[in-house]
């Protein structure tokens, strides 16, 4: 019974400690949120470019935060809350940011300055000379004060000489220490007349002018002394910089960890699992989510799985329509990987990965006018950096490489880059593209590369593309509604739906209609190209066996999408070209023609007996 009660008390004490620790951390972080950028302030102080107001703001934040954290383990408060903090990292950060010497030093430095003068930018009254730390400033203040007292003694002297008890200095239009008398008043002949009216005349006695010159000189020397003293004060901070920099970094780490803890608790994140360095590189994410979009969309966000393994499928070629969610998916994987590396929980049902030595991304488009670099040059420069520095333990993410140049060059560069990563680096890869030719790389790296696409739904077209020949019918033909499902699934996408994005962007209707018409025309042209090739390879009716009395049906080629049709044409023509230019003999020519014939047969879904036999000559 006693043992049970003791354990219950320990658990209760730990819960109270955690609650109090969290409460104090929240207070500290709320304080820092209202304070200026402490890290920036410390850096500017170290480089002697900080203003007095920046110095006061930074050190007040450090001092107040340190005092709050000191409550967690100070004996004065009668409860060592730190005993309930099990994390060695958390304990070390708290102690670094709230050590007694640090708090005492921050308080001492603040006591040397006048807060109100600092906030007003008044350098002349900034330093607390009573501390005895600034003798030069004290001497300058005394010199200025002596000149002011000299002026006060002069006005007393003039009152006696002129017999005017109420005589005093006056200022007019910025001119100070004037003696204003009536026009008929008798004054010494050496007094300098400054200005006058009908009834009054204003004078500057020679002693006043001499004293004013000395006062101006004393003030100027005092201002120089204050500026030099401030510079020396900032310079002397250099010996404390490392100590305060460590405290600021500890506060920043506490801020980060506390924010991640709150996020993980409120968003129901999970702890990622890391495999040992002896195991192959891998990333497995179950129901992963984009941390920012998921917090905005809530339950409407569509999660996705990710599976990459160095000994299996370590490259995903992601295709899909524009605005379908491709970039969101690859950014999601990158963010989950980064969050895992920094020790955060992640937005997923589960996550397992190895410790990455780098996460390399090539996304977006931008130029560098000041360096004379085009968008495409910047794109390839970033790609070059990735190819030079990534390793087999890296994650590489490339989004639509090659779109900044012609289609043929873009395809060639994208294909060669992916081939280099697969063959030379063998890192984990997410490769987004709209080029269907890139998918051919699956045949060279079977089992290592797999095509994926972001799924979608479309409404059925009312007419076949080949049935529409006029531009007026195009809007009725190709205007279809696309519903994005945002789910990454196996297989390649055969459409990009660029015209759908054009409609969403509200391009002029005449422009969209013309684009629709040209798209239909191009797609129809591709269909006719492959149809002509098929006619060359298919048997003529009189050459068919006698048992087959019915004429052959026209080639059924419209079951393919435009990209697939273009790819089929490209392969057929490539095989024919290889046969025509082959110098390896009749066997090679025969194989190339048979390959072209087989591709045409697959594209048209015709039986083998409909094609002429290819025999070596």
Query: Strands of the largest sheet, in order across it?
Result: 10-11-12-8-13-14
Q: What is the CATH topology descriptor of the largest domain?
A: Rossmann fold
Largest sheet: 6 strands, mixed
Query: Helical residue percent?
Result: 40-55%
Arithmetic mean of pLDDT? 81
Strand content: 5-15%
The structure class reads: alpha/beta
Cα(first) to Cα(last) distance is 100 Å
Query: Tell me, what's the shape?
Result: elongated
Number of domains: 4
> How many beta strands in the DSSP annotation?
14
Uncertain spans, ≥5 residues at pLDDT below 50? 1-17, 463-478, 543-549, 554-559
Radius of gyration: 41 Å
Identify the CATH homologous superfamily of the largest domain: P-loop containing nucleotide triphosphate hydrolases
Which CATH-level-2 architecture of the largest domain?
Answer: 3-Layer(aba) Sandwich
Tell me what the structure shows.
By secondary structure, this protein is α/β, with parallel strands linked by helices. The chain has four domains: 152 residues, MutS, DNA mismatch repair protein, Chain A, domain 3 (Orthogonal Bundle), CATH 1.10.1420; 85 residues, Orthogonal Bundle (MutS, DNA mismatch repair protein, Chain A, domain 3), CATH 1.10.1420; 237 residues, P-loop containing nucleotide triphosphate hydrolases (Rossmann fold, 3-Layer(aba) Sandwich); 101 residues, no CATH class. Helices cover 51% and strands 13% of the residues. The protein is built from 19 helices and 14 strands. The strands form three sheets. It has a six-stranded mixed β-sheet with strand order 10-11-12-8-13-14, sandwiched between helices. A four-stranded antiparallel β-sheet has the order 1-2-4-3. A four-stranded mixed β-sheet has the order 5-9-6-7, with helices on one face. Helix 1 packs across helix 9. The longest helix is centred in the first third of the chain and has 33 residues. The protein is elongated, with a radius of gyration of 41 Å. The termini are far apart.
């Amino acid at each position: 019974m006693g043992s049970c009660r003791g354990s219950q008390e320990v658990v209760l004490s730990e819960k109270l400690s955690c609650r109090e620790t969290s409460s104090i951390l929240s207070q500290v972080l709320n304080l820092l949120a209202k304070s200026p950028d402490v890290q920036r302030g410390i850096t500017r102080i170290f480089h002697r470019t900080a203003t007095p107001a920046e110095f006061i703001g930074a050190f007040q934040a450090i001092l107040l935060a340190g005092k709050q954290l000191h409550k967690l383990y100070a004996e004065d408060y009668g409860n060592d809350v730190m005993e309930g903090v099990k994390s060695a990292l958390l304990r070390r950060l708290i102690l670094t940011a709230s050590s007694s010497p640090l708090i005492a030093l921050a308080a001492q430095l603040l006591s040397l300055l006048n807060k109100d003068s600092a906030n007003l930018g008044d350098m002349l009254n900034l330093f607390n000379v009573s501390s005895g730390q600034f003798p030069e400033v004290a001497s300058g203040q005394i010199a200025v004060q002596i000149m002011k007292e000299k002026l006060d003694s002069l006005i007393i002297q003039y009152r006696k000489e002129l017999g005017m008890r109420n005589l005093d200095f006056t200022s007019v239009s910025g001119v100070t220490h004037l003696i204003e008398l009536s026009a008929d008043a008798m004054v010494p002949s050496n007094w300098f007349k400054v200005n006058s009216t009908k009834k009054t005349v204003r004078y500057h006695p020679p002693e006043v002018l001499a004293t004013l010159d000395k006062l101006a000189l004393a003030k100027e020397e005092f201002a120089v002394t204050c500026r030099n003293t401030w510079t020396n004060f900032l310079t002397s901070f250099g010996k404390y910089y490392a100590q305060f920099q460590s405290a600021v970094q500890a506060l920043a780490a506490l801020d980060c960890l506390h924010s991640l803890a709150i996020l993980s608790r409120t968003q129901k994140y999970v702890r990622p699992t890391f495999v040992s360095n002896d195991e192959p590189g891998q990333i497995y994410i179950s129901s992963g989510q984009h941390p920012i979009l998921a917090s905005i969309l809530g339950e409407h966000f569509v999660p996705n799985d990710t599976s990459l393994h160095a000994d299996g499928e370590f490259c995903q070629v992601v295709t899909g329509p524009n605005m379908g969610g491709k970039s969101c998916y690859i950014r999601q994987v990158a963010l989950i990987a980064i969050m895992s590396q920094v020790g955060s929980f992640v937005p997923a049902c589960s996550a397992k990965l190895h410790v990455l030595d780098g996460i390399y991304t090539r996304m977006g488009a931008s130029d560098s006018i000041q360096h004379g670099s085009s968008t495409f040059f910047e794109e390839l420069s970033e790609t070059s950096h990735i190819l030079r520095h990534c390793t087999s333990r890296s994650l590489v993410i490339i989004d639509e490489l090659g779109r900044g140049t012609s289609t043929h060059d873009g395809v060639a560069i994208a294909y060669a880059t992916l081939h280099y990563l697969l063959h030379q680096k063998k890192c984990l890869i997410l490769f987004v593209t709209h080029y269907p030719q890139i998918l051919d790389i699956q045949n060279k790296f079977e089992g290592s590369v797999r095509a994926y696409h972001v799924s979608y739904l479309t409404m059925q077209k009312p007419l076949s593309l080949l049935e529409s020949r006029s531009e007026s019918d195009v809007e009725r033909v190709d205007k279809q509604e696309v519903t994005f499902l945002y789910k990454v699934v196996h297989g390649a996408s055969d459409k990009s739906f660029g015209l759908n994005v054009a409609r969403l962007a509200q391009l002029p209707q005449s422009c969209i209609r013309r684009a629709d018409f040209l798209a239909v025309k191009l797609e129809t042209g591709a269909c006719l190209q492959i149809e002509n090739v098929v006619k060359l390879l298919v048997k003529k009716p009189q050459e068919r066996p006698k048992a087959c009395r019915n004429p052959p049906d026209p080639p059924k080629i419209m079951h393919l999408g435009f990209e697939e049709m273009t790819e089929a044409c490209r392969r057929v023509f490539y095989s024919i070209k290889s046969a025509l230019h082959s110098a390896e003999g009749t066997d090679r020519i025969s194989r190339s023609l048979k390959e072209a014939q087989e591709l045409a047969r697959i594209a048209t879904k015709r039986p083998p007996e409909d094609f002429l036999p290819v025999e070596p000559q």
